[in-house]
Amino acid sequence: MRFTHLDESGAARMVDVTGKRPTVREATAVGRVTCSDAVVEALRGGAVPKGDVLAVARVAGIAAAKKVPELLPLAHVIGVHGVVVDLAIVDDGVEITATVRTADRTGVEMEALTAVTVAALAIVDMIKGVDRSAAIADCRIVAKSGGRSGDWKR
Question: What pLDDT is stored for residue 1 in this prediction?
């Protein structure tokens, strides 16, 4: 197996995508924040002391998707053309889904994962005063499309 981010001597490198043609690409990631029954009830009733948790998490996830090259040193600067962050309150917390789209030379998997994880961090930040046991779990890519490797679904 060959890792594209390593050169022949094993040193880290940024993959050169100059010769690739821009194509439409999309990636979807999911994750969740688990929390207490009391927090779930407060989320459903809009009674979390810090305010609208889901709105803050949604905006945090969208903003984060656009900052990936600042966070991951080998990530490419690409045009993030669309980000949708969906949040659903469930019995044990909040489920997060982020879909990111571009028309560029490389995929947006890291952007989708970053959107989910930062949205999750925002939720934890908003509820930590009420539930210190809140946890981030199950963050993963579930689908991608476009590019040389084509479509993939978990």
Answer: 67
